[in-house]
């Protein structure tokens, strides 16, 4: 657990550096913060998960935080690609979006997102939400496994 | 087709009546022809009847003569005066009849024949008169002469017997005398002459024997008595002869002469009848001729009448049915909504012409209806277009609101989040670390401010500053680039403007905004470490004034060519920019009813942004739409 390589991995797909920093900050407050891999756009995220442009190896993070509004390949497409992938579909994906639009929410669930969370503007709410999302979908998931 | 033309001017009712009138006239004509020939035949028949009447009259003459002859023969036997009288009356009547027939006869031959008949009849009548005389004479002889003579003979015989009784000679004479008398009567009853001849001869011998015998008594008285006896016998002989003569005479007259005349009369009358009948022959021929003629004429007239009636009916029926059929067809076409069906018979003066005018009105109505329908369709299309535009605009607005709310919320999340973070860091005494976050906080707020400004810009397009003017692009772009010179040299971008750019009808400030945005974009995305160059050119191509802004940067991959014009769409997040610039360019071009597109492979050979303004007079349409 103390070995960094043994820590659970969280894939953060987020184009906004500031938001990424906020999420990272929130997670750092946890008892056992996960190791974080940051992808800046959908393409990068898919590269990481499927190993398309790299070593060709699939990677199974414990959890994926996925923003929807991404350059190049948008979040919904990343979601649908992963959820239609045979071995990766079990990786839980939590959508973290600024949008509170029901349309986005519906689209996300239609593509088998595990959860749809809207980023709160309040800092305390934000950190609490990020932490509980990690705890619920990441930590507890792993522990039970 | 002059008949058809003439017919087409007459109304249908009068046309039909005229046709009927014509047929009626034909019927009357045929009737007149038939009547005339019948009348003609009737005249001939009258003639024939006259001839038959004459023949009958002649036949009656014949019959009368036969009857007359029978009466005359009857008279021969009876000698009755009343019969003679009746015969005479008949003769008179027949004479009158002859006169009557003579009056009605025609032709000299016929008159000649009748004259011959008359002559024969005259002879007949005269002969009858002679016969009556002879008959009367004999009657007298028989009734009175014989009686006297026989009485004298009886007296002489008695006298002689007184003187010489039982004289055988006298007895024989007496016997012969009686025989002669008997034979005479027998003759009178039935004129068998041979009996008479014997009786006469015997009597003649006896009287001569008597005369020759010597008288037994030579007395005077006896002599005288003998003489008287002889005289009475001689007288008887004379009367006997005379009676026979008279009998033979009237028998001859009636039985030969009159019968012959009657025969002759009848022979001539038969000739006359023949002649009269021969007169009838040509009439009969003429009747046959006239009948044939009449038949032929009537048949011909009937055929002509029937054919003419058929022709007239056909013409009239055609003159009505054909245009009506055509009109029906036209009306069917018109009823189907055809508005350019050709209408026949418009020039006609009859009801069909009126119908044609009605059809014309119908057609005009159809045309109007079609016109209205077209207008309605156009309106509907326009309405649909407006609706689509409205829907698109609605969608755009929704998208806009969504995007704006999302993208505006993002820096707020950052700001509030960072403020929270700073507070936490400060609480923990990490003031420096907290202070370091201030820059990010400021950037987030600036970005929010920039977003709001850009959005305002975007919302101004097409809303404020709408005037179109003729822009000299050479001057306009030169001034723009001169004004940007400092920014450009800072960004390492060189701008080259081609000479002789075509002028364009557009809104000056919007066009400047477009070029400013495109040059700004090139500065953000196309400038490499070695700097960059933007080339601006333009030409009139087809019906558009086209300009291009060409950079020599990395270019844009084709799949992103459309997406980059969307609101808040950025291909790279590390470059600063709000993602509104190209959306403004798109909106400005839409406002000008023009187009914008990208030419780039994305393989490092730069990108060419094309701007196309329509030349054709869309300004009016645009002004209307605005």
Order of helices and strands of chain B: HHHHHHHHHEHHEEHEEHEEH
Q: Mind summarizing the main beta sheet of chain B?
A: 5 strands, mixed
Number of helical regions of chain B: 14
- Low-pLDDT ranges of chain B: 618-626
Number of strands of chain B: 7
Report how far the terminal alpha carbons of chain B are from each other: 65 Å
Sum up the overall morphology of chain A in one term.
Answer: globular
- Intertermini distance of chain A: 15 Å
Tell me the number of helical segments of chain A per DSSP (H or I, 4 or more residues long): 5
Helix content of chain B: over 70%
Low-confidence stretches of chain A: 1-5
How does this model look, in words?
The complex is a heterodimer of chains A (145) and B (626). Chain A is 42% helix and 16% strand. Chain A contains 5 helices and 5 strands. In chain A, helix 1 packs across helix 5 and helix 2 runs parallel beside helix 3. Chain B is α+β, with helices and mostly antiparallel strands. Chain B is 76% helix and 6% strand. Chain B contains 14 helices and 7 strands. In chain B, strand 4 and strand 5 form a beta hairpin.
What layout of secondary structure does this protein have?
The complex is a heterodimer of chains A (145) and B (626).
Chain A: E1 9-13, H1 17-28, E2 35-39, H2 42-50, E3 63-66, H3 75-83, E4 93-97, H4 102-110, E5 115-118, H5 123-144
Parallel strand pairs in A: 1-2, 1-3, 3-4, 4-5
Helix pairs in contact in A: 1-5, 2-3
Chain B: H1 2-9, H2 12-78, H3 81-104, H4 108-163, H5 168-189, H6 193-212, H7 220-335, H8 351-427, H9 431-460, E1 469-471, H10 473-483, H11 485-491, E2 493-497, E3 504-506, H12 508-525, E4 532-541, E5 544-550, H13 581-591, E6 595-599, E7 608-614, H14 618-625
Parallel strand pairs in B: 2-4
Antiparallel strand pairs in B: 1-3, 4-5, 5-7, 6-7
Helix pairs in contact in B: 1-7, 2-3, 2-7, 3-4, 4-7, 5-6, 5-7, 6-7, 7-8, 8-9, 12-13
């Amino acid at each position: 657990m103390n070995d960094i390589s043994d820590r659970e991995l969280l894939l953060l797909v987020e184009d906004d550096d500031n938001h990424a920093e906020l999420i990272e900050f929130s997670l750092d407050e946890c008892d056992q913060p996960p190791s974080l891999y940051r992808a800046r756009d959908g393409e990068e995220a898919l590269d990481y998960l499927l190993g398309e442009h790299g070593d060709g190896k699939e990677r199974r993070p414990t959890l994926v935080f996925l923003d929807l509004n991404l350059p190049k390949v948008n979040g919904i497409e990343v979601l649908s690609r992963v959820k239609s992938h045979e071995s990766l579909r079990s990786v839980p994906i939590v959508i973290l979006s600024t949008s509170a639009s029901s349309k986005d929410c519906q689209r996300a669930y239609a593509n088998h997102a595990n959860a749809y969370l809207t980023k709160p503007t309040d800092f305390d709410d934000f950190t609490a939400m990020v932490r509980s999302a990690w705890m619920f979908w990441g930590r507890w998931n792993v522990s039970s496994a | 087709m002059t008949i058809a033309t003439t017919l087409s001017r007459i109304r249908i009712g009068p046309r039909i009546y005229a046709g009927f009138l014509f047929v009626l006239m034909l019927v009357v004509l045929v009737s007149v022809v038939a009547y005339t020939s019948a009348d003609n035949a009737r005249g001939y028949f009258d003639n024939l009847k006259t001839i038959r009447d004459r023949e009958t009259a002649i036949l009656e003459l014949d019959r009368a003569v036969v009857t007359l002859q029978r009466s005359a023969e009857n008279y021969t036997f009876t000698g009755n005066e009343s019969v003679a009288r009746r015969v005479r009356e008949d003769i008179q009547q027949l004479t009158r009849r002859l006169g009557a027939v003579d009056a009605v006869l025609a032709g000299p031959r016929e008159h000649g024949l009748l004259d011959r008949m008359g002559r024969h009849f005259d002879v007949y009548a005269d002969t009858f008169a002679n016969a009556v005389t002879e008959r009367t004479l004999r009657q007298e002889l028989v009734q009175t002469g014989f009686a006297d003579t026989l009485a004298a003979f009886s007296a002489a015989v008695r006298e002689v017997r007184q003187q010489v009784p039982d004289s055988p000679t006298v007895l024989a004479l007496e016997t012969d005398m009686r025989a002669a008398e008997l034979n005479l009567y027998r003759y009178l009853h039935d004129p068998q002459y041979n009996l008479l001849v014997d009786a006469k001869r015997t009597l003649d011998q006896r009287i001569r024997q008597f005369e020759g015998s010597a008288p037994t008594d030579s007395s005077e008285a006896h002599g005288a008595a003998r003489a008287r006896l002889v005289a009475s016998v001689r007288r008887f002989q004379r009367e006997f002869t005379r009676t026979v003569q008279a009998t033979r005479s009237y028998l001859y007259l009636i039985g030969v002469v009159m019968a012959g005349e009657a025969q002759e009369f009848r022979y001539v009358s038969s000739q006359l009848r023949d002649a009269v009948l021969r007169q009838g022959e040509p009439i009969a021929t003429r009747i046959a001729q006239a009948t044939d003629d009449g038949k032929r004429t009537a048949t011909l007239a009937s055929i002509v009448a029937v054919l003419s009636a058929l022709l007239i009916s056909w013409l009239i029926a055609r003159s009505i049915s054909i245009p009506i059929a055509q009109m029906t067809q036209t009306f069917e076409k018109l009823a189907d909504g055809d508005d350019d069906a050709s209408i026949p018979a418009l020039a006609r003066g009859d009801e069909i012409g009126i119908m044609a005018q009605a059809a014309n009105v119908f057609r005009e109505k159809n045309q109007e209806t079609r016109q209205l329908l077209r207008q309605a369709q156009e309106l509907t299309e326009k309405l649909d277009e407006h609706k689509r535009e409205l829907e698109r605009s609605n969608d755009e607005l929704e998208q806009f609101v969504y995007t704006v709310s999302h993208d505006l919320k993002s820096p707020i999340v950052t700001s509030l989040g960072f403020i929270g973070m700073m507070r936490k860091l400060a609480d923990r005494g990490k003031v420096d670390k907290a202070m370091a976050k201030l820059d990010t906080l400021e950037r987030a707020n600036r970005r929010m401010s920039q977003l709001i400004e850009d959005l305002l810009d975007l919302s101004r397009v097409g809303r404020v500053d709408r005037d179109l003017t003729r822009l000299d692009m050479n001057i306009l772009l030169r001034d723009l680039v001169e004004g940007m010179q400092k920014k450009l040299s800072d960004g390492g971008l060189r701008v080259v403007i081609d000479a002789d750019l075509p002028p364009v009808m557009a809104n000056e400030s919007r066009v400047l905004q477009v070029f400013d945005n495109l040059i700004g974009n090139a500065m953000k995305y196309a400038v490499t470490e070695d700097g960059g160059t933007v080339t601006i050119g333009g030409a009139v191509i087809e019906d558009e004034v086209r300009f291009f802004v060409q950079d020599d940067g990395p270019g844009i991959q084709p799949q992103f060519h459309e997406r980059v014009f969307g609101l808040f769409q950025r291909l790279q997040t590390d470059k600063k920019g709000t993602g509104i610039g190209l959306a403004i360019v798109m909106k400005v071009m839409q406002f000008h009813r023009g187009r914008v597109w990208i030419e780039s492979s994305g393989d490092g050979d730069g990108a060419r942004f094309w701007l196309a303004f329509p030349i054709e007079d869309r300004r009016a349409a645009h002004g209307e739409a605005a």
